[in-house]
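Example 3.2
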Amino acid sequence: MLQDILALQKRELDARLAELYVKREAKFRNVSSDLIKVVIGPRRAGKSFFAIHELQKLGSFGYVNFDDEQLAKIDNFNEILAAVDSLYGSPHFLLLDEIQNFPKWELLANRLQRQGRNLFLTGSNSNLLGAELATHLTGRHTLAYIFPFSFAEFLELEKKSLTTPETKQKLLEFATYGGFPEPAVKKLDYADYISRLFDAIFYKDIVARYKIRRIKAMQEIARILFSNVAREFSYNSLKKSISGTSTITLQRFVLYLEEAFVFFEVPRFSFKPKEQVHSNKKIYCFDNGFVFAKAFKSSPDWGRLFENLVAIELKKGEIEQRHKVFFWKNAQHEEVDFVIKHGTKITALMQVCYDISNPDTKKREIRALIKAKQELKCDNLIVLTNDYGNEEEAEWFGEKAKIKYIPLWKWLLGKESRNKK
């Protein structure tokens, strides 16, 4: 029975190897070392596909997918390992997919490494994996993060050079549908695919794991957050929309959604840590496709969709510990979308404005940037736009500044500096 399950998984694996693969930007520091290789990211972002293609460079390997409900009742890994050895010929390399579904997986990983196996692990829960890795595998693992396609990876599907108008059109498509690989590669219906994906995340990674009983309330919370991506939110305001739910329960529900790589928060910048903790945050999601499939909407809000794309890229850098990301807001409610901090230094202030052609809009964006510049002592001021690019001098009440206007497609493709002077 067990060998039959793994044989079926092997056939599915072999079929996947024949599919189109877009080379991912992620990489391990030393893929050939005996360190445990851990791939973390959202479901269906391509973690196992990435690991498979890394393993192919090294030789044959065994494979177990713990997201298979047929394995859920098997808690003796020795039985699974015996079946793997029989099926794959006692492989030195092992890929254990969605490992967080196996009880006490971190102890298992340690044991297998001590026994000389070279492990590749994937997982879809940021907190569970992060906490256990830090506690049990310190110094014995290397990490790679896989997210839905970046814009550069998304364009690789075209297999040709694109003109600037074509690239800009592709950006609108990417901003609308997001970058989950399977619907992009196989030309599937995005709304249907991502709705079903969210349901899988919701029921497998949240409801089942945390034994959630108020399912409808949590679904409503997710729908409200999807509809308010790139906006400030507070748990008090959320509480008014979800009757009979305490603030603590709401905080816990949102945390579960964050751990499953659905949403992330960006805090308001303050030099006072206590004030930063208690201020409202802005909510974003890890892929624009979620907004397309799940938000209340009548037509695309390009400004917020563009802002979410920028937030995703900046969040990736934060997860990889390259910088910290905040937003800035003063007492007059003037706002800068993103504050980028390296160590103790603010290195960039960034606005996202789809259409900068309206003089009042431009004035508003510049005014907030210059006021933030004065307070945060940062001269690197950037406005990301749909298609306007230039560097201009600006002035507000005697304060002069240089503003860099960069089309978002150029910024996403790395054709313009991102957050460094």
